[in-house]
Amino acid sequence: MLGAQIHNSSAWPAVLPTVVWPAMQALHANTVEMPVYWEQLEPEPGKFDFSVVDGLVAQARAHHVRLVLLWFGTWKNGSNHYTPAWMKRQPQRYPNVVGATGQPLDSPSPHAPATLAADIRAFTAFMGHLKLIDPARTVIMVQVENEPGTWGGVRDFSPAAQRLFEAPVPAGLLAALGKPAGAGSWQAVFGEDADEFFHAWFIGRFVGQVAAAGKAVYPLPLYTNAALRDPLRPSRPPSYESGDPTDNVLAIWKAAAPALDLLAPDIYMTDDARYRRVLELYQRPDNALLIPETGSQAANARYFYAALGLGAIGFAPFGLDLANFADSPPGAPALTAANLAAFALNYRAFAPMAREVARLNFEGKLRAVAEAPPTPPAAPDAAAGPAAATATPAPAVAQLAPPLHFAGWDATVAYGPRVGTGAGANAQPIGRAMLAQLGPDEFLVTGAYARVNFRPAGAAAGKPWQFMRVEEGQYENGVFKPVRIWNGDETDWGLQFSSVPQVVRVRLYTR
Ligand code: DGJ
Description:
Layout: E1 3-5, H1 16-27, E2 31-37, H2 38-41, H3 51-62, E3 66-76, H4 85-88, E4 96-98, E5 104-108, H5 113-133, E6 139-146, H6 159-166, H7 171-176, H8 186-190, H9 194-217, E7 222-226, H10 250-256, E8 262-267, H11 272-282, E9 290-294, H12 303-309, E10 314-317, H13 337-350, H14 354-362, E11 366-370, H15 386-390, E12 404-406, E13 409-415, E14 432-439, E15 442-448, E16 450-456, E17 465-476, E18 479-486, E19 495-497, E20 503-510
Parallel strand pairs: 1-2, 2-3, 3-6, 6-7, 7-8, 8-9, 9-10
Antiparallel strand pairs: 4-5, 11-14, 12-13, 13-16, 14-15, 15-20, 16-19, 17-18, 17-20
The structure holds (2R,3S,4R,5S)-2-(hydroxymethyl)piperidine-3,4,5-triol.
């Protein structure tokens, strides 16, 4: 999925032509993630208006892209802001979470049977309608809720929630976590984590029931997304959203919501090590890696490759439409042509071969890497005396991608522009490369701001080798169509990728 998510208020048929489609076209996205608003869909209890959904699907078809629809239901970023007005007007029937000191929190309670029933009714109506109007499968996946959880508190402390908290931990959860049956209350089993794990379980159960009901009507792939916690220095709520599928409660969510096919991280971190750690944490044997949202700054474009290298099935920068609302993520740069171009560079190369790449990745034949920032020089050693403190600091050390191993060959990736451009390295960490093995001595290679080279490995290690043939081209209906051969300057320093989308098929030769 070469995706992009549009702004929260952009999924209106009248807005798409000017705000969304030009950007998606420039991006070469093959899939667009668009919200579906409960408040619009069910203006009166039990009365559904599918006109907006119909408009989104029809326009997506006309623009030859697939859709992932995002159910902005009971939770949107932890709040109930997309529930219909008739629900908001009945806070007793559709209650919010009560904080530890009795304060009201702007977050719906997962312990409210009427909210659950209403969400199930609306979500199943929506899924049933999709089944009816979309035999062509323009909509490939649905997100159930949006970052469901609670900001500013750890769980619901209402009397009803408190009773559940004091009751034994459900047997199903204990079994799923490999804990002994009858282990006791939440506090007894989970100690300091009890409040957060309790909230995660009950939100997961709620979302899981909505997902299961929708899936029974129309079995599309379903997922839920998470606002994250710091993956390197974990703390506790309320420093992050409590109860949503953060990395520490993935096993709880898996047990609570088996109808969800995957749990997905919304990655807005700007720190390289944290970004990569999140990718690792959400790539699990029981969880396909999908990045349904990430910051749209140009620097993040390289992580498309890092994600692919971990087997990701989809990637979508957030807010790359032309709405340019002031409500862009705090701290994120406004949408610029440079942002769009950075992500477009990836998608222009991958769009014609998305299926081939997905298959090669699934078969374990693909490696992809993204440049990391240089390691900062070591701080002066105070113990070594004043001379050390005033010495010229050591230069930052550029990060080299480790060799990529394939059957019979290793590949090396060096980050930097083309040889002969004067500069030896990228000024910013923007390099990226992807290689996939097509045959014993044949590879598919693409990248940006990087040079790729090979050396024989295994039984052939140390043998002299050459490029036998390097063809630039692209896939058309599953067949690679060369347009020219690279040789001379284009191969003597390795395969050089810069600011244009180029894909090569390489045949290697050992003597
Ligand atoms: C994460 C949410 O899931 C999105 O809907 C959006 O609100 C972004 N944050 C940032 O604006």
